[in-house]
Amino acid sequence: MEHFKHPRCKGCVENASSRSEVVNPLCGDNIQLTIKVGEAPKKIQHILFTGAGCSISQASASIMTELCSGLELDKAKELSSTFRAMMQGEISEEQKQKLGDGIALEGVKNFSARIRCALLAWEALDKCVRDMEGTKGL
Ligand code: ZN
User: Closest Cα partner for 47 from 1, 80, 23?
Assistant: First the structure.
């Protein structure tokens, strides 16, 4: 698990546009996410996470932040629903390509107790996106 041993995008964004914190009490995972978004286009300029927990949750956070870095908010949202769809069933080859390293987590869907671990970081992302959509201009 390369992303667990050497997580990307770890830390806290200064002057974040949005931050969120999610926990998975079932496993004891937690993730804090900070995102800075540009004015226009509404692109994710910086996205960093901190947290602790099992290798699945932390690797998933590392992959998610890497995938979403530089994306427009709408695209990040789309990616999040694609990842969720993968965890709940089958997705197309085209969708798989968009998920990049996220595909490494596909096998987790066979272990229902761990699905939440894999989804946690994406939940944090969704929270931030909703938060930013609810504020002025975004
Ligand atoms: Zn976990």
Answer: 80
**Residue 62 CA to ligand 1 centre (angstroms):** 14
Beta-sheet pairing, 29-37 with 44-52: antiparallel
* Residue pLDDT tens, the chain, 138 long: 677 777 777 899 989 999 999 999 999 999 999 999 998 778 999 999 999 999 999 999 999 999 999 999 999 999 999 999 999 998 999 999 999 999 999 999 999 999 999 999 999 999 999 998 876 544
Instruction: Quote the ligand 1 centre to 82 CA distance (angstroms).
Output: 20
Ligand 1 center from residue 130 Cα (angstroms):
24
Residue range 2-133 in CATH 3.30.950.30: no
Name the pTM for this structure. Answer: 0.91
- Across the chain, which distance is largest between two alpha carbons, in Å? 41
